[in-house]
Amino acid sequence: MPSPADRTQWFDLYHEVVLTGLCTGCTACIVACPFHVLGYENYEPVQLQEDGVDKCVHGDRGCSLCTLACPRFREWESDIDQLLFGQARKPEEVIGQYKDIVLARAADPEVLMQGQDGGVISALLLWGLENREIDGVCTSKLSDERPWDAEPTVVTDRDGVLATAGSRYTYSANPLAMLKAAELGLSKLALVGMSCQASVTGALAARRVNKWAKKINWTFGLLCSKSFTYEGLMVEIAQKELGLALKDIVRVNVKGKLLFYTKDGEERTYSLKKAHAFTRPGCLLCPDFAAEHADISFGGLGQNDGWTLTVIRTDKGEDVWNRAVADRVVEWRPGSEDPAAIELMAKLAAKSRERWPMEELPESHRLPGLLPDGEVPAAAEA
Q1: What count of other Cβ atoms lies within 10 Å of the Cβ of residue 235?
Q2: Degrees to nearest 5, angle at CA 132 with 107 and 179
Q3: Residue pair 66/32 in contact by the 8 Å Cβ criterion
C-alpha cells in the first residue's frame, strides 16, 4: 500500500484516467468505493456528490481505493504482471505471458451448441459450479429493456450459464455484477469479461483491495479488439443500414466482418472497417487485445468448426484447465495445429498496443505500448 504522502484518490483518477480517455469503463473503481459515491454514466465512472466532478471528500480524508482498483491507473500492467507471473511483460511478449495455447471445445453437445464458438467457457463454468469451486458467475446477459443490449448479471446454475452464453458486442460492465453477488452472499466468483475487465482481478489483488479480490476465484477473459455503442451497432448498422428487425436477430459474431444471423436462417454481413466509426470511446486507447491478465483467455479467431482458441496463462488457470481435461469436461488439440490463428492473435494484439498514448505519458507508464525491437508505437488517433 502507498504511504500517506503518496496516496492517490478520485481527483487523480478522474484527471489521469477518465479525462484522458484511458478509462475503459470497467467499473472496478465503482465496485471498490466503500462510500458508494461513484456511479456509472455513458460508460464512465462519475462522482455522485455535489462537491464537483473531480472532488471527493472521502479522498481528501485519505481514501484511495478507487485508484488502487483501477486497471488503467499509472503502472497498472507491471503491477499486475508481477503479481501473476513474477515479472513484467517483455516487449516481445505481445500477447502477454502464458503457459500454453490450445484449441478447445466443450465435450457436452448441449453446451457446445449454446456457446459462441466451442462453448469452452460455459463448460468450465458449469463444471466449477457443480464442484463448488465457484458459487456464482459475474457475466453479461441480454437486456430485458433494450433488445440486443448487454448488461451485467450474476448466474448461479446451469440454466443461467447457458442462458448467458455467447458474445455480445455492445459493452457490459461485468464487474458491476460483483455488487449484486455480494448482496447474495456469494464469495467464490468467476469473473468473465473482456480484456480490460480481465485485468480487474489482478489490479485488486496487486494493490491489496482484498475485500473484493478475495471474492474472485477464477478470471476468464475474452479476446477483444473493441466493442460498439448500442446506437451504432444495433440502430445504425443492424436496423438502418441492414434493415433488420432486432426481434429477428438470433446471434451476432465477428469473423473478419460483422455477422448477423436471423431466426429464418439468413446471414447478413457488414464491413468491420466501416463499423469502426461506431467504436465505443472507452476502447479507443485500450492496449490489451488478448486478455493478458486472465487465468485463461478465450476467442474465436477464424475458427468456424466449433473450436475456441484458448490461452492458458496463470498457475491457477493451468490447474483449472488440467483438472477439467482430466474430468473430460473439454476436448482439446494443440494450438500449433492452427498457426494462422495464433499469428492473427499476435497481429491484433500488436495493433491494440499501438493505441497506448506513449508520448503523452511518463516513461514509467509506457509498458503497455511497448513492442519488440525497441519499436515505439505512435500515439493513437482520436
Answers
A1: 15
A2: 110
A3: yes
d(Cα 366, Cα 83) in Å, to the nearest integer? Answer: 18
How many other C-beta atoms are found inside a 10 Å radius of the C-beta of residue 284?
A: 17
Q: What is the rounded average pLDDT of the residues 181-210?
A: 97
Nearest to 249 by CA among 258, 123, 151, 274: 258
Residues 288-311 have a mean pLDDT of 89
The model's pLDDT over 16-36, given as tens digits with 9 standing for 90+, comes to 999 999 999 999 999 999 999
376: cell is 515505439
In this structure, what C-alpha cell is assigned to residue 359? 508520448
Q: What is the mean pLDDT of residues 274-295?
A: 96
Check if the beta carbon of residue 228 is closer than 8 Å to that of residue 169.
yes
> Which are the contacts of 106, defined by CB distance < 8 A and separation ≥ 6?
112, 115, 118, 119, 120, 122, 123, 329, 330, 331
Give the relative orientation of helices 315-326 and 120-130 as an angle to the nearest 10 degrees.
80
Strand 136-142 with 44-47, pairing = unpaired
What is the model's pLDDT at position 254? 83
Q: If we measure between CA atoms, which residue out of 378, 368, 381 comes closest to residue 288?
A: 368
| Residue 200 CA: distances (Å) to CA of 68, 77, 113, 154, 240 | 10, 11, 30, 17, 36
Provide the pLDDT for residue 378.
47
Contact in structure between 8 and 64 (CB atoms under 8 Å): yes
Contact 69, 212 (CB under 8 A): yes
- pLDDT over 60 (residue 381): no
CA-based nearest residue to 343, from 302, 306, 308: 302
What is the average per-residue pLDDT within 102-125? 90
pTM of the model: 0.93
- What spatial distance separates the first Cα and last Cα of the chain, rounded to whole Å? 34
